[in-house]
Amino acid sequence: MKKKVLSLLLATTMTAGLLAGCGSSDAATSTTDSAPAKTEAKDDVTADTTDATASAGTTEQGKIVNIYCWNDEFKSRYEAYAADLADTHGVEVNFVIVANENNAYQNNLDAALMAQETAAADDKVDVFLIEADYATKYTKSQFALDVVNDIGLTEADLAGQYQYTKDIVTVDGVQKGTTWQATPGLFAYRRSIAKEVLGTDDPVEVQAALSNWENFDATAAKVNEAGYFMLSGYDDSYRTFSNNVSAPWVDGTKIQIDDNMMKWVEQTKNYTDLGYNNKTTLWAPEWSADQGPAGKVFGFFYSTWGINFTLLGNSLADASAEAAVGNGIYGDYGVCEGPQPYYWGGTWICAAQGTDNIPFIKDMMYRLTCDAETMKQITLDTQDYTNNEAAMNEIANSDYASDFLGGQNHIALFAEAAKKIDMSNISDYDQGLNEAFQQSFHEYFEGNVDMDTALENFYTSAVEKYPELTK
Q1: Which of 138, 259, 363, 470 has its CA 20 to 30 A from that of 297?
Q2: Phi/psi of residue 88, each to 5°?
Q3: What does the longest C-alpha to C-alpha distance in the chain come to?
């Protein structure tokens, strides 16, 4: 088999670095516990390589396990729930952490994967993490191993996982990754503002006021009249629209803009002009501050990682949970379904072709993504929503309560939202085109360009990223 430059898949590396979700903001752009520097990817690599099943690993297990990721979320999960496996297998686990900013993570990973065949045993990529928006770039390549036939997980091991989490990393019937989390979305709102504007902070009553976009807009007007913002910025409602499109971004090679995307444009322009949002952008310091004690924003669309990891972190404003109690924000958030079901992000674990640590990888994947008790404990410890339907339903039907969310059992809402996730319209181009679309229309929302110019800027950016596509 000839090795192409990750085919056209790695050649279409995205140029922008908005985090697609799943965890904290990016780690620093330098690596943490990094492995030796990798050889730069070459423009034309045609060296022979054996197929994945033959080169999956050697019979003798290596001593170093290199795990590539973009922040410390997975590192924290591994260290809390699976670190003992290193001693069991006699290996040292090395995390290579490179931030997503300016596509640095994918660029670094691509270079390492291209050098995989000639790299020293202890320098090879053993495990790498991917996100939903660019998952197919790697799962359609030969560099991600089959978790069943190459790694050894069984269909029974994987049976408890949400089907969509398997579908998104499955190509031609072959599953190329596995995850510990499912990422349905909800709307997180400030209870104190809800009481002032709606007369109640009860999640059922708040949901009635937000149950569709017409009601959502009407509530936004009331929130604005009371001196608050409905949303923080331009990007906040984006995923609820982009996850409910009727067709993928690309048909053949033609870019197609779904009507639902233009509904996001219309709503966001309207909210900006009326003062219903605070004119921030995703991940900006101002956006994060809007979630804290001084924020005047009614609510945020967030998936599972967003609530337990990002919203909680931003709300504490660098304080411990204990110190934050009584700061006016801890316990002042609640969650409801919002106007439309959606998902946001997710992180998948992939085993790299050429790894010599398959026994360790199998046990780690099993522990963190298949073992129901481990995943239940992760949820109880961290409020994350994990990838085992039975375990999540057990918590959903229990007296579990989140102090941060005012005693609410948000797992019950997530369990219902997870059933509605639809991945049928994902494409290879989601990350790059989503980012280009959002960025191109920021100028329109700010009044710097008109609608037609924003559209042309989007097409220009899209074709620069993906020369094989057409308007």
Answers
A1: 259
A2: -60, -40
A3: 68
Q: Which tokens in the block code for residue 376?
A: 């239940």
Domain range annotation of the chain: 52-182+345-396, 185-342+402-418
What is the CATH code of the structural domain delimited by 185-342+402-418? 3.40.190.10
Question: CATH number of the domain at 52-182+345-396, out of 3.40.190.10, 3.90.870.10, 3.30.300.70, 2.120.10.90?
Answer: 3.40.190.10
pLDDT at site 320: 52
179: left (phi over 0), alpha (psi -120 to 50) or beta: beta
Q: At what angle do helices 259-274 and 430-445 cross, to 10 degrees?
A: 30
Residue-wise pLDDT for 160-200, tens only, equals 999 999 999 999 999 999 999 999 999 999 999 999 999 99
At residue 317 the predicted structure's pLDDT band, cuts being 50, 70 and 90, is low
What confidence tens digit (pLDDT) does each residue in 212-259 have?
Answer: 999 999 999 999 999 999 999 999 999 999 999 999 999 999 999 999
For residue 150, the SS3 value is: coil
Averaged over 90-102, what is the pLDDT? 93
Task: Phi first, then psi: give them for residue 297, nearest 5 degrees.
Answer: -100, 135
pLDDT for 14 beyond 80:
no
